[in-house]
Amino acid sequence: MPPRNAIPVIDTPEHHLGAIVLVLLTRAPDDATLKAAVRLADNAAIASWALRPDALVTLTVEQYRQLLDYTAAPQVLDLALYLGGDRTQIRTLMDHIAQHVDEVLAHYPPPSREG
């Protein structure tokens, strides 16, 4: 029996669930586009972490992803879907992520080094 196509997991904070559902209903992606968009968002987030601002150098990749998910999950998914999950557009999504991170840093102090 062939394996079922798994729907990608979109790890979304509770306060963004409504917005994520709205993005999915508005964009109405097919399975392949949704999977490609989630992969693009994941890859762009990791690449953005590698190029993160000095103020966030103390964050691990997981912490950076949590910050990004908490502050901009619907916006990142929406742009990834708009781009059709096209991995050649990763820089566009990375720039979008950087804008959101810069906005967070403008309103909140960066984490401090402990120890």
Count of DSSP strands:
0
The tally of helices reads 4
Coarse structural class = mainly alpha
The secondary-structure element order is HHHH
Could you say which overall geometry the principal axes of the C-alpha atoms support?
Answer: globular
* CA(first)-CA(last) distance: 54 Å
How would a textbook summarize the main sheet?
Answer: none
Radius of gyration: 15 Å
Outline the low-pLDDT stretches: none
- Mean pLDDT score: 91
The level of helicity is 55-70%
The fraction of residues in strands falls at: under 5%
Question: What does the secondary structure layout of this molecule look like, with pairings?
Answer:
Layout: H1 17-27, H2 31-50, H3 61-82, H4 90-107
Helix pairs in contact: 1-3, 2-3, 2-4, 3-4
How would you sum up this structure, described in words?
Helix 1 (17-27) packs parallel to helix 3 and helix 2 (31-50) packs across helix 4. By secondary structure, the protein is mainly alpha-helical. It is globular and about 45 Å long. The protein contains 4 helices and no strands. The model has no long low-confidence stretch (mean pLDDT 91).
